[in-house]
Amino acid sequence: MSALKDEDPRIHGIKTKIRVVPNFPKPGAVQCAGIMFQDITTLLLDPKAFKDTIDLFVERYKGKNISVVAGIEARGFIFGPPIALAIGAKFVPLRKPRKLPGEVIFKEYTLEYGKDRLEMHVGAVEPGEHALVVDDLIATGGTLCAAMNLLERVGAEVVECACVIELPDLQGRERLNGKPLYVLVESH
Amino acid sequence: MFAGENGLKGDPRLQAISEAIRVVPHFPKQGIMFQDITTLLLDHKAFKDTVDIFVDRYRDMDISVVAGVEARGFMFGPSIALAIGAKFVPLRKPKKLPGKVISEEYELEYGTDCLEMHVGAVQPGERALVIDDLVATGGTLSAAIRLLERVGAEVVECACVIGLPEVKISVNLMIAWADCEKEMMLEHCNNHQSRLFVMCHCKAHFVSVLNNGWDGECYS
């Protein structure tokens, strides 16, 4: 499901602010498969477009009994906290290995070349909580799946995954085991 | 601006913010008392109060840029930027930002690291705020200030949630503590334009401190 279909007038402004950077390689990153990197930093330079982005998510999730917003390192840390603050939820960072101090649980996931791991603090999320997972972009869905796995293992219910951008050609949506995905813009 | 002028001393929100921060001993290595702000993020009211205190301080300072230091600066900076109508600029570790960047090296305890900023993100003459969760030596903040000044911006202030009790700063900054009467002025302060605003003092884990004497450091 994409906000495009609702034709909210703010979507166009958001889409035009996302910069595409050719030939940005990062070992193992799926975005490099298409050699066109979706750069959201230019969106953050436009206060109105950035605010519209957050507002669209907040309007969708406010009053829906979501108590956890989990953001994926690092660009999920940019969008997740403002959403969490606005809807009255806690913010939980899901991080690369060895960044979180204290006790963590982890989930390994595969990249195009090799593996990576996502960690979450033990005790950050309680059983029965309703959670939202936030990242800037969904590609293959591998990272989002790892995130959902962490939350479900501690007994939370993942209500939805929310991303600014989807790369539909990489079919990440299908990998989410039926969990709903909400995105603002698609990029082919 | 100094603590006495900012009206925050005795603000009840500060105590709750400080109490929400968790100390994790011996992370990432023996002797370091890690100041963990993730527990602050789990407390919606305390997290909101943290952002509100920063927003109240900066909303009328004509700031157009909030620069957040990766990665924990990303957790506080964007909310402040959104509330004061400023852009958010991520300052990142090497090779994370796509496209053209400028780079500034800074010293670690052992070796050096690098902070990068996008070319074109900040224009000459813009007034900027630098945000990170914690200030220890000030090395990272110094690198952030240099990046912004290199492109002609004016760094109005650096803001951190936590600071060391005696901040071993390697750059000349006037420091204001939100919860403390004492002004701290460095010996070699030369009226550098930038200032540092810190919300809470670092917390020590006294059980471990008693075992080792005070040779442990608090930093993240």
UniProtKB/TrEMBL annotation, chain A:
EC top class named in words: transferase
EC number of this enzyme: 2.4.2.7
Domain Phosphoribosyltransferase: 47-170
Annotated Gene Ontology cellular component terms: cytosol
Keyword Protein biosynthesis: no
Keyword Glycosyltransferase: yes
Domain of life: Eukaryota
Pathway where it operates: Purine metabolism; AMP biosynthesis via salvage pathway; AMP from adenine: step 1/1
Localization annotation: Cytoplasm
Subunit structure: Homodimer.
Entry-linked PANTHER family: ADENINE PHOSPHORIBOSYLTRANSFERASE, PHOSPHORIBOSYLTRANSFERASE DOMAIN-CONTAINING PROTEIN
Protein's recorded name: adenine phosphoribosyltransferase
TrEMBL record, chain B:
Subcellular localization, as worded in the UniProt entry: Cytoplasm
InterPro entries per the UniProt record, alphabetical: Ade_phspho_trans, Adenine_PRTase, PRTase-like, PRTase_dom
Limits of the Phosphoribosyltransferase domain: 43-163
UniProt entry keywords in alphabetical sequence: Cytoplasm, Glycosyltransferase, Purine salvage, Transferase
One term of GO molecular function: adenine phosphoribosyltransferase activity
Top-rank EC class of the record's enzyme: transferase
Assembly and interaction partners: Homodimer.
Name listed for the protein in its UniProt record: adenine phosphoribosyltransferase
Species name: Morus notabilis
